[in-house]
Amino acid sequence: MSDNNSIRIERVFNAPIELIWDMWTHPDHYKNWYGPQGATVPVAEMDVRIGGKRLVCMEMQTPKGSMKMWTTGEYREIIINKRLVFTESMSDENGN
Questions:
Q1: Are the C-beta atoms of 67 and 50 separated by less than 8 Å?
Q2: d(CA 64, CA 79)
């Protein structure tokens, strides 16, 4: 998929591809690494199958208190250990 509304992220890691795949597709792994320093991921719901939904919450502590950012999306293409395509947009805690 390639169009003007797409973002392609590529990066080379010195790790087994199976581990990298797990980091992107298993909620517990995802919660442990995703986000900038100081952020937590209290919610990572992932139905990793074509048409499956994802709902993620990233939380940061700010001088004014906790700030949560919710995103939702749908898995569009999955080739295990090779390609993971999903949409992502801002949402509320219900995925709206």
A1: no
A2: 42
Q: For the whole model, what pTM was predicted?
A: 0.84
**Alpha helices by DSSP H, the chain:** 17-25, 27-33
Angle at 48 between CA 93 and CA 90, to 5 degrees: 30
> Could you report the per-residue pLDDT of 5-29, keeping only the tens digit for each?
777 777 888 999 999 999 999 999 9
Cα–Cα distance, 45 to 72 (Å, whole number): 9
List, as own/partner pairs, every contact residues 55-59 make where C-beta atoms lie below 8 angstroms and the sequence separation is at least 24, other chains included: 55/91, 55/93, 55/95, 56/30, 57/93, 58/34
Extract the tokens encoding 83. 């390609």
Residue-wise pLDDT for 67-90, tens only, equals: 999 999 999 999 999 999 999 999
